[in-house]
Fold this protein.
Amino acid sequence: MNGSIRQRSNRQRSKGAWQLRYDAPPDGTGKRRYISETVKGNKKDAEIMKEVDIDK
């Protein structure tokens, strides 16, 4: 599965917040779906969570 990690920022840059976004199984109509999660911590923590979440 594919996935990406990007630093989470709104108006103010929040240090230590990362957004994980990866593919989910298609819905009944065959449309592509994504799952997004926010991880608090450093980038290494986000990379570890990405691997755990994708392997589910």
Summary: Strands lie at 3-9, 13-24, 33-40. Residues 3-54 form one domain. The helical segments are 43-54. The longest strand covers residues 13-24.
